[in-house]
Amino acid sequence: MTVACAAQASLEPFTASWCPGGFAGSRRQGRLLAATDAGYHPRTRIGGLGFVVNDGQWGLKPYVNVKAKTAPIVDPSGPSLVAVLELRAVELLLATTGIKEATVLIDNAYALRLLDRWHAGHIAEMPEGYNLRRRSMHPSGLPTLVRLATEVAARPDLEFAKVAGHTGHPLNEVADALAKLARRRQEGDEVDVKERAEGLVRAFLRQAASQVDRPS
């Protein structure tokens, strides 16, 4: 089966697309299944965010944590930064796909715990060290994770579930690869982001379709 990916948007520094080819059995009781992931390289201070949905939607975005007058550091360092990036990947998924009735797989326990707390209405809880100052880059002035917490609290159609990272789960592996792709491209790797990302998603769809079609 050949899956052609149709470009939804190709805007630097964010790339999103959709590979048609959702397959029979891709939904659990009518729900979509998505995975998000993020990574960060402390030496370059560059990270990447990635997501994939089992209907073929995917996206990736670099994250740059630099000191500059125009872009001061607003996220904490250390372990909290990893959770912040994982949560930013969830925000990227929700902001760009508009998915409903979905289960989102997360491989970071701290990020998942915060999502569960926000789902229960405790939206004031934030990662340790997260800066709540007003953001000039968004019309509301609210920080990304404050906006995410507010949305999650109002979305009973969403579920968040733990997945073990780097254990071969196909959706988690694709999301991880997309996040790394975004980081590598921002660091200067001249990889063709769209071609590589579409190849990853096509491979996932083929694998999933073959598993569904395989006689039991």
CATH hierarchy: architecture: 2-Layer Sandwich
Name the overall outline.
globular
CATH homologous superfamily assignment: Ribonuclease H-like superfamily/Ribonuclease H
**Count of distinct strands:** 7
| Helix content bin | 25-40%
Question: What series of H and E elements makes up the topology?
Answer: EEEEEHEHHEHH
Count of the separate structural domains: 1
Radius of gyration: 17 Å
Explain this structure.
The protein has helices spanning 79-97, 109-119, 144-153, 170-186, 193-213; strands spanning 6-11, 14-18, 32-41, 46-53, 57-64, 102-106, 158-162. It has one domain (6-210): Ribonuclease H-like superfamily/Ribonuclease H (Nucleotidyltransferase, domain 5, 2-Layer Sandwich), CATH 3.30.420. The chain starts with 5 loop residues before the first strand and ends with a helix. With 216 residues, the protein is of the alpha/beta class. The longest helix has 21 residues, at 193-213. The protein has five helices and seven strands. Helix content is 36%, strand content 22%. Strand 1 and strand 2 (14-18) form a beta hairpin.
Helices, strands, pairings?
Layout: E1 6-11, E2 14-18, E3 32-41, E4 46-53, E5 57-64, H1 79-97, E6 102-106, H2 109-119, H3 144-153, E7 158-162, H4 170-186, H5 193-213
Parallel strand pairs: 3-6, 6-7
Antiparallel strand pairs: 1-2, 2-5, 3-4, 4-5
Helix pairs in contact: 1-2, 1-3, 4-5
